[in-house]
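Action item from last meeting closed. Structure (568 res):
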């Protein structure tokens, strides 16, 4: 019944908030009244259970059954053992599948989850395979892809379920067991290189996305690439026995978990904007900065946090990541510095493209002009409809100003020297070597002071006229009433900010030719792989085997290989 659905929403939200409180209490050493059932392989008790805190906030603000289902599957991943976590991750992948084609694309991820669950039950025997299996298993959860396509089939829209999927992937990476030093070192380097490439590709997809939700999908893909890079840095720190670097990577990992709250704010703001202004296509959207000022300010706050501009949380994560890359062990001389310089260069290019994507969506969506009558008639909803967005924006503001408090809250007794509730006094971020510190609260205070001065100067210099003055049209026809921002020929178009800067570096025909050749090479490689697999599957009596049969045979062969390795 509709009334029952309205009553069940607050009850579910309250339940998830209770789960957040229990996770915080358990992370600080508080024992639950009835104890915890510790069944081997069913429930997990570790530091990664504290990821239930951001997950609870995501699930409490979810509004669709698909988002709630993905949050429940992510809760199984965070709180379950090796087998239960793989089942929960498969549940989340099924929740993300909106079409049968998407379900078929996630078939390799499902097989990797099965192998990851089997390998996790054999500690010390197949640890050298687990990072690769986890990479394949979390590819769909993190939205990682080397494809440059931004069509609807290649880039799904952003919803709350994607945030729950990223939390599930973070939990899978956090509980990866330790392997041999050589294997961890090799996998660490591979993950860092792959993370840099994924970051640049995701930034490009965010720049070329056709609507606001797919722009956020590209930004979220960059966050997923940062998770992969941090996982590689943790493997390197563990292999080289560098506790300072490992601790700094773990703190940055928890900061990324806090950054996901900015995605919650953006998703909730887009839900309201879509209801008020219609479709979120950048060819039709515009002028919301004047028409919906309060909601646009909250959405801009989420974009700034995701982009990495100071003083919000994204900048703190970039600062920590650069410090971690500078602290990587490397050989002396030019040969040892070249990999670090290349990684920094790729990250810099990806960050610049990410900034262009931010400029594009802000210039079109907030500072452009309305292109439809419905968009021109949009306005801020009533205050009661904005409470959910305001509640979603409060955590990211607090975490951006005092990230040290968030780390103390998330890490609890394992937060280092200042463990437990005493860690709440530590509000700064320190580098792995302890030689540099970042105080985001001072940076936020400085930015607020500069913004106040700019607002006062603008108010003094731009006084409103005492009477209405008609604009000079120079003989042009009168602007239609829904185009309240003036002549459409003088306004910012949906692609002009990005294309203008891109044309300065590479000509448009060369850029289109490169993208077309890149997409064609990926398509031909995928076609060759499928053709080879079809030939192998149809070698028996000239018939093709069914896909599920091939999947089961591959899983059985992989388990036989794992068992054979264990016997050796």
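Sequence:
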């Amino acid at each position: 019944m509709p009334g029952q659905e309205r009553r069940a929403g607050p009850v579910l939200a309250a339940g998830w908030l209770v789960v957040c409180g229990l996770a915080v209490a358990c992370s600080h050493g508080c024992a639950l009244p009835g104890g915890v059932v510790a069944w081997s392989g069913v429930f997990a008790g570790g530091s990664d259970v504290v990821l239930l805190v951001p997950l609870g906030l995501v699930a409490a603000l979810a509004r669709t059954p698909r988002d709630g289902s993905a949050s429940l599957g992510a809760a199984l991943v965070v709180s379950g053992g090796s087998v239960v976590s793989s089942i929960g991750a498969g549940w989340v992948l099924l929740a993300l599948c909106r079409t049968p084609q998407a379900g078929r694309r996630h078939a390799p991820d499902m097989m990797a989850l099965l192998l990851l669950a089997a390998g996790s039950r054999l500690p010390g025997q197949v640890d050298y395979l687990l990072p690769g299996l986890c990479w394949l298993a979390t590819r769909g959860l993190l939205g990682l892809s080397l494809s440059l396509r931004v069509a609807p089939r290649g880039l799904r829209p952003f919803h709350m379920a994607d945030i729950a999927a990223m939390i599930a992937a973070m939990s899978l990476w956090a509980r990866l067991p330790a392997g041999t030093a050589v294997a961890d070192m090799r996998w660490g380097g591979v993950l860092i290189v792959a993370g840099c490439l994924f970051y640049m590709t995701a930034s490009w997809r965010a720049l070329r996305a056709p609507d606001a939700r797919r722009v956020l999908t590209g930004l979220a893909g960059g966050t997923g690439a940062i998770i992969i890079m941090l996982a590689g840095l943790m493997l390197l720190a563990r292999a080289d026995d560098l506790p300072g670097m490992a601790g700094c990577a773990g703190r940055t990992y928890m900061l990324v978990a806090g950054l996901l709250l900015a995605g919650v704010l953006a998703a909730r703001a887009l839900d309201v904007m879509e209801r008020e202004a219609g479709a979120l296509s950048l060819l039709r959207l515009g002028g919301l900065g004047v028409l919906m000022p309060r909601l646009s300010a909250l959405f801009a706050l989420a974009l700034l946090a995701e982009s990495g501009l100071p003083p919000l949380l994204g900048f703190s994560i970039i600062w920590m990541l650069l410090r971690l890359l500078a602290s990587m062990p490397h050989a002396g001389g030019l040969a040892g510095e070249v990999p670090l310089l290349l990684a920094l260069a790729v990250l810099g290019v990806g960050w610049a493209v990410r900034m262009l994507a931010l400029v594009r969506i802000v210039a079109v969506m907030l500072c452009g002009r309305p292109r439809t009558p419905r968009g021109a008639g949009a306005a801020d909803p009533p205050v009661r409809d904005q409470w959910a967005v305001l509640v979603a924006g409060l955590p990211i503001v607090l975490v951006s100003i005092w990230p040290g408090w968030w780390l103390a809250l998330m890490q609890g007794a394992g937060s280092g020297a200042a463990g437990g509730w005493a860690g709440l006094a530590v509000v700064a971020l320190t580098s792995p070597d302890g030689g540099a510190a970042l105080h985001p609260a001072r940076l936020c205070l400085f930015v607020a002071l500069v913004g106040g001065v700019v607002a006062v100067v603008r108010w003094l210099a731009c006084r409103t006229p005492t009477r209405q003055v008609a604009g000079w049209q120079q003989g042009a026809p009168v602007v239609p009433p829904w185009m309240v921002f003036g002549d459409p020929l003088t306004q910012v178009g949906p692609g002009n900010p990005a294309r203008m800067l891109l044309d300065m570096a590479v000509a448009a025909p060369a850029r289109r030719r490169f993208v077309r050749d890149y997409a064609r090479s990926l398509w031909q490689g995928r076609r060759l792989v499928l053709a080879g697999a079809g030939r192998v599957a149809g070698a028996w009596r000239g018939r093709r085997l069914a896909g599920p049969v091939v999947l089961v045979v591959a899983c059985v062969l992989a388990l036989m290989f794992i068992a054979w390795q264990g016997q050796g």
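Note appended to the action item: The chain is about 70% helix and 0% strand.
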